[in-house]
Amino acid sequence: MVAYGAEQRVCLPALQAGWLTQTFVHWRFRPEAVQALLPRELVVDEYEGAAWVGLTPFVMADVRPPGIPAVVPGLPTFAETNLRTYVRHRQRGDGLWFLSIEVAFPLMLAARAVGAPYNPGTLSVSASGGTVSYAGSRWIGGASYRLTVRPGDPVEPTERDVWLTSRWRAYTRRLGMIWETPVEHEPWPLADAAVDVLEETLTTTAGLPAPLGEPVVHFSKGIRHVRLGPSRPCVPGPGPS
């Protein structure tokens, strides 16, 4: 068994939510191809000699400010899809870098204030006959995706599974600075998944070349207790002595 969990507590969250019905589609890329898309303050985090990029569609459920319980009626629930990679910051450590974020709830565009690359679009998530289907189309620019997966049996996460799915901070860039958003949640319950349909233009729109081989795919029913901390700028520390 590989032990994993949040490496930090988010005691005063800015936002709480659940991340449900989530699929992880991960491709390997040459590190230099991904590094070219990153700000200079961040470097590619490699696993098995490769950079990894994940397409992660899901349902953002019961979005609420701190102190509001998830059982309150009428809390926003909507589809979101991230295209992300894995990076390291010299002072702050490893985390996520979003190449793009598709969202069906325009109020989330407020996160552009700290550089989160949200794109409004028409998104859907549906389940039928043992499959889960996702689709999305960006309102401006035309990037789109279609994904249908067939979830399988639960798996005991391997070291690579944990590396790909469990990161506890996200980085963005705005006003010439790198910003850090801390994240806390319970471990992902993961299952194998087979791909029935996968068509997407998000990776090429982001500037990525063709990946190195077929994707690694997981499905999760989701997690209910996500806590996002306030975003804060990463103030440069002293250099090496």
Structure description:
- 7% of the residues lie in helices and 51% in strands.
- It is built from 3 helices and 13 strands.
- It is globular and about 50 Å long.
- The chain has helices at residues 31-35, 159-165, 202-205, and strands at 15-29, 42-44, 51-64, 78-89, 93-103, 118-128, 131-138, 144-154, 169-174, 177-184, 191-200, 216-228, 232-233.
- The longest helix is centred in the C-terminal third of the chain and has 7 residues, at 159-165.
- The protein has one domain (15-229): Acetoacetate decarboxylase-like, CATH 2.40.400.10.
- Strands 1, 2, 3, 4, 5, 6, 7, 8, 9, 10, 11, 12 and 13 form a 13-stranded mixed sheet that branches.
- The model has no long low-confidence stretch (mean pLDDT 93).
- With 241 residues, the chain is mainly beta.
Secondary-structure topology with pairs:
Layout: E1 15-29, H1 31-35, E2 42-44, E3 51-64, E4 78-89, E5 93-103, E6 118-128, E7 131-138, E8 144-154, H2 159-165, E9 169-174, E10 177-184, E11 191-200, H3 202-205, E12 216-228, E13 232-233
Parallel strand pairs: 5-6, 5-9
Antiparallel strand pairs: 1-3, 1-12, 2-4, 3-4, 4-5, 6-7, 7-8, 8-11, 9-10, 10-12, 10-13, 11-12
